[in-house]
Design a protein that fits this description.
This protein is of the alpha+beta class. Helices cover 51% and strands 7% of the residues. Helix 1 packs across helix 2 (27-42), helix 12 (174-188) packs across helix 14 (215-226) and helix 14 runs parallel beside helix 16.
Length: 802
C-alpha cells in the first residue's frame, strides 16, 4: 500500500496519538508516525507542538526517516529556534558520516534552516564538505554557501567561504563547477563587490564543464558567460563556436540561454559574413521552440520579438512558421501576429495579407481586431504594398461586420496620415458606414477623416452635424476630435461651418467639465478671434508623417533586454529594475556614495509623502466650474495660456545645463511607478535653475509633465512651465526649470533648506524633496564695501536671523 493513506482524513485527537507513536520503540511505528506528521504538515495542519518528539527521531541510521525528520525541521525551525539548536549536534555528526548521501543531506538541511542561531555551527561542517572527496557533497556545499550568505554575509566573508567557492570553479567535476557558478551568481546579486569575475583560465574551465553538466548547470554557465567581455573578436568567435552546439539541446531554457550568449558576442565579430552565418544557425532552434507547449511558445515568441528587432535576418525566411493554427491559444496568436508584422517584406507581403484576411473572419473579436490592425501596420511599413493593404481593408468593410468595419476605419486613418493625398478616393466608402459607428476610437478616426478632408467632402458639415447632436454624451476622445474637425471645417469652408463652430465652442467653454476640451476650445477661440490667418497656419499645418513603431523598443532598452533573454524581463519587455526590487548588478558596481544616496532618498521620500504646509495637490483634478469665455485682447496666446507675456522657457540647450551624471537621484523608479527623477541646482546668467533628468522605466511613453513647489523658506516658485517632451520606454530626457525667488524671506517659522516638489505625469503625481544650496541665490555682482555691509546687517530685523 502506498503512502497516500497518510493523507486521508483523520479523526479528532490525533496529536496525542501521534506523540505516543513518535515515542514508540518500534521503528516501523515511529516511521509511520513521522509520515503522518509530514502529511498533516503538507495539507496545512499545525503540528509544531510535536517538534521535540520529531527531533528525537533523528538518532536513527534509517536514511528515509532522517529525510522526513529533516523536512519537518526545515519547515518549523523558524517558529521553534530554541528547539532547533537541539538538532545541531546531530547535523554535525551526520556531516562526518561515511555515507556521502547522509553528509550532503545534513549540510543541505542546515543551509535550508533559516535560523541565525545555528549559522555559527555550520562553519566547520560546511568547510569540511566543500573539500569533501565526494563531488555530490561538494556540489551541495556550494549551494549551501549561497544560502548562508543570504542569511549572514559577514560570516561567509570572514570565514573565507567565498574564496573556497571560487576554487570550486576549477573542480574536476562539472556538476560541482555549475553549482559553484550558480552560487556565485546568486551572491553577486546582493554583494557590493565584484565577487564573480571570469578570467581567461576560468573561461576555459567553464566551457569544458558546459558539455558535461546537466541542463540546469548549462543554463547557469551560459548566463555567466553573458557577463564576460572577450579580449578580442577571435576570442568571441571561439566562445560562439563552443556554445553553438547547445542550440540543439532539448531543453528550451538551454537553447534561449545559448541564443543570449551568441547575440551578446555577435556584436563583437568584425567579419559580417561570419556573423550572418552564425545568425542563420539560430534560426532552426528558435523555430523548433514553436513546436513545444503553448506556454513555452509564448515565451519563445516574446524573445524572438526582441531578437528580430536587433537582427531581422535571423528568421526572415521563416515567416510561415508564425502563421496561426486553429488551436493556438489567443495569447500565442497575438504574439505570432506581432512577429509577422516585424518580418513582413516585399517578398512575403501577399502571403501575410492572405493570412490576415483569413484571421479577420474568425470568431474571437480581439483576434480579429488585432488582425485588421496588422493589415494597417503592414501598409504603413511597406509603401509599395499600401494599395494592396487598402484593397483588403475595403473588402473587409464590405462584410458589414460591425467591429471589423470600425477597426478598418481606425487603421485607414493612420494610412491617410502615412500617405497624405494618395488614397482619399475611398473616403466615400467610409462615409457610407458612418451610422454604424458606436466605438469612441472609430468615431474619432472617422471624424478626423471628415475634418481633415472637409474641402473634398461635399456634405462634411452634415456629417459632423450628426455627431454634434449628442456632443455632451460623447467620450472626451470623440469630443476633442469633433472640436478640431469643426474648426478645420470652418477654416476651409467658413460659410458652412460658422454656426457649427460657434455652437461647439460655446458648449466646450461654458458647459463642459473636461479641462482638456475646455482649454483646447479657449485656444481655438482666441486664435479665431485674433488672427484667422495664424489659426490656419496652426490648425491646418502640414502634419508629420507617421511610422509603425508601436512594437519597436528603444535601442538602449533593447540591448538591455537582449542581455536578459530567457528571463521575465524578456517576457515583460521591461528592464528588470522596473518590476524587481533587488536587481542584479552587472556592468557597474555599487559604492558607498550610492548607498548613502539611496538612504537619503529613502528618508526624503518618507518625509515628502506627507508635506507640511501648503497644498501639493494643486496638480490634481481641476475645478469643474467653467470660466467665462475670454475677451479678445492684444495679448495673443500668451495671455490666454496665463503666461502674461513671459518669455522664459523651461527648456534650455544641453550646453548650458549641468551634467546629468552629477545630478542626485531624488525619486527612484520603484517609488515613482517607473518614473525616476534626478536633479541639481545651478545658477546661470544671474538666475537660479533646477536641472532635471527624467527617466522612463515603464513600458509606455511618459508625458503630460507639470510641476508644483510646496511653500518654502526661500519663496521659490517655477518661473515658467516645465516642458518635457514625451519620454519613450527605457529612455530619459533632460529639462531645466528657471526659478523665481520672493523678495522677502524667510517666513516667520524660520529657515528650512528643504524644497518639497510634486511632479505630475501620465502615470500619477510623485513627491520628493532636496536641499537647496544657498549659493544659487547669491548675486553675481554681490560685492559691497565693508561700511555698507554693516549698515545693511544692522538694518535687518532680528526675526530673520538664524
Amino acid at each position: 500500500m502506498t503512502d497516500a493513506k497518510f493523507f486521508q482524513n483523520t479523526k479528532k485527537g490525533e496529536i496525542p496519538e501521534l506523540k505516543e507513536e513518535l515515542q514508540s520503540q518500534d521503528k516501523n511505528v515511529k516511521k509511520d508516525a513521522v509520515k503522518k506528521v509530514i502529511a498533516a504538515m503538507t495539507v496545512g495542519k499545525d503540528v509544531s507542538m510535536l517538534f521535540p518528539d520529531v527531533v528525537n527521531c533523528m538518532q536513527t541510521p534509517n536514511i528515509e526517516l532522517k529525510k522526513l525528520v529533516y523536512l519537518y525541521l526545515i519547515n518549523y525551525a523558524k517558529s521553534q529556534p530554541d528547539l532547533a539548536i537541539m538538532a545541531v549536534n546531530t547535523f554535525v555528526m551526520d556531516s562526518q558520516d561515511p555515507n556521502p548521501l547522509l553528509r550532503s543531506l545534513a549540510i543541505r538541511t542546515m543551509g535550508c534552516i533559516r535560523v541565525e542561531k545555528i549559522t555559527e555551527y555550520m562553519c566547520e561542517p560546511l568547510r569540511r564538505c566543500m573539500k569533501d572527496e565526494d563531488p555530490y557533497v561538494r556540489k551541495t556545499a556550494a549551494i549551501c554557501v549561497a544560502k548562508l550568505y543570504d542569511l549572514s554575509p559577514e560570516l561567509v566573508e570572514d570565514q573565507g567561504f567565498l574564496e573556497q567557492l571560487k576554487d570550486l570553479l576549477s573542480d574536476s567535476n562539472p556538476m560541482v563547477v555549475s553549482n559553484a557558478v550558480a552560487a556565485l551568481a546568486e551572491i553577486a546579486e546582493t554583494c557590493p563587490d565584484d565577487v564573480f569575475q571570469i578570467t581567461a583560465s576560468t573561461l576555459h574551465k567553464l566551457l569544458a564543464a558546459l558539455n558535461e553538466c546537466n541542463e540546469w548547470g548549462q543554463i547557469y554557465i551560459l548566463d555567466a558567460l553573458t557577463n564576460y567581455l572577450p579580449a578580442d573578436a577571435k576570442e568571441a568567435e571561439n566562445i560562439i563556436e563552443r556554445v553553438t552546439p547547445r542550440l540543439q539541446h532539448a531543453n528550451s531554457g538551454v537553447v534561449l540561454s545559448a541564443v543570449k550568449v551568441i547575440m551578446r558576442y555577435l556584436d563583437m565579430i568584425n567579419d559580417e559574413d561570419l556573423a550572418r552565418s552564425v545568425a542563420r544557425k539560430m534560426s532552426a532552434p528558435l523555430v523548433t521552440l514553436l513546436s513545444a507547449e503553448p506556454e513555452i511558445q509564448y515565451v519563445a515568441l516574446r524573445n524572438i520579438n526582441l531578437i528580430i528587432q536587433k537582427r531581422s535576418g535571423v528568421l526572415s525566411n521563416e515567416i510561415k512558421v508564425f502563421f496561426c493554427k486553429y488551436n493556438d491559444p489567443i495569447y500565442v496568436k497575438m504574439e505570432k501576429i506581432e512577429v509577422m508584422i516585424a518580418l513582413v517584406s516585399e517578398k512575403n507581403i501577399d502571403q501575410v495579407l492572405m493570412e490576415l484576411k483569413e484571421y479577420a473572419s474568425e470568431v474571437d473579436v480581439d483576434f480579429v481586431r488585432k488582425s485588421v490592425r496588422a493589415i494597417g501596420r503592414c501598409a504603413i511599413k511597406l509603401e509599395s504594398a499600401a494599395q494592396r493593404c487598402i484593397n483588403v481593408l475595403l473588402e473587409l468593410i464590405q462584410t458589414k461586420v460591425n467591429y471589423v468595419v470600425q477597426e478598418s476605419i481606425i487603421v485607414i486613418k493612420d494610412i491617410f496620415r502615412r500617405y497624405p493625398n494618395q488614397y482619399e478616393s475611398i473616403i466615400a466608402t467610409l462615409c457610407e458606414n458612418l451610422d454604424t459607428l458606436d466605438e469612441p476610437e472609430a468615431k474619432a478616426a472617422m471624424i478626423w477623416i471628415v475634418g481633415e478632408y472637409a474641402d473634398r467632402i461635399d456634405n462634411a458639415d452634415e456629417l459632423l452635424d450628426t455627431f454634434l447632436d449628442n456632443f455632451s454624451d460623447e467620450t472626451p476622445q470623440v469630443q476633442l476630435q469633433l472640436l478640431s474637425a469643426v474648426v478645420k471645417l470652418f477654416l476651409k469652408r467658413p460659410t458652412d461651418g460658422q454656426d457649427m463652430v460657434q455652437k461647439v465652442l460655446q458648449f466646450a467653454t461654458q458647459e463642459c467639465d473636461n479641462p482638456d476640451l475646455r482649454d483646447r476650445a479657449y485656444v481655438y477661440w482666441r486664435l479665431l478671434s485674433s488672427d484667422p490667418d495664424a489659426a490656419k497656419e496652426v490648425v491646418l499645418a502640414e502634419k508629420p508623417v507617421i511610422n509603425d513603431d508601436t512594437s519597436m523598443i528603444d535601442r538602449s532598452l533593447l540591448d538591455q533586454l537582449l542581455l536578459n533573454l530567457s528571463t521575465l524581463a524578456s517576457v515583460y519587455h521591461k528592464a528588470p529594475e522596473a518590476f524587481v526590487a533587488k536587481v542584479p548588478v552587472r556592468s557597474t558596481m555599487r559604492d558607498d556614495d550610492d548607498e548613502e544616496e539611496e538612504e537619503a532618498v529613502e528618508k526624503t521620500s518618507t518625509a515628502s509623502a506627507q508635506p507640511s504646509g501648503g497644498d501639493l495637490l494643486d496638480l490634481g483634478e481641476p475645478s469643474p466650474a467653467a470660466p467665462a469665455a475670454p475677451a479678445v485682447s492684444e495679448g495673443g496666446l500668451d495671455d490666454l495660456l496665463g503666461l502674461g507675456g513671459q518669455s522664459s522657457s523651461a527648456t534650455v540647450t544641453e550646453s548650458h545645463s549641468s551634467s546629468p551624471s552629477t545630478r542626485k537621484l531624488v525619486l527612484p523608479a520603484e517609488k515613482g511607478k517607473g518614473t525616476a527623477v534626478r536633479m541639481s541646482f545651478a545658477r546661470r546668467q544671474g538666475q537660479p535653475f533646477i536641472d532635471f533628468t527624467f527617466e522612463n522605466h515603464t513600458s509606455t511613453a511618459l508625458g503630460d509633465f507639470a510641476i508644483q513647489f510646496n511653500k518654502n523658506s526661500f519663496g521659490v516658485q517655477p518661473a515658467a512651465p516645465l516642458k518635457v517632451p514625451p519620454i519613450a520606454p527605457g529612455s530619459s530626457s533632460d529639462a531645466s526649470l528657471p526659478l523665481a525667488v520672493a523678495d522677502h524671506f524667510p517666513p516667520s517659522g524660520g529657515v528650512s533648506p528643504m524644497l518639497q516638489i510634486a511632479v505630475k505625469n501620465s502615470v500619477g503625481i510623485h513627491y520628493f524633496q532636496d536641499e537647496v544650496p544657498f549659493s544659487i541665490f547669491f548675486d553675481d555682482n554681490g560685492a559691497v564695501e565693508k561700511d555698507d555691509f554693516l549698515v545693511l546687517w544692522q538694518s535687518m530685523d532680528d526675526s530673520v536671523e538664524v
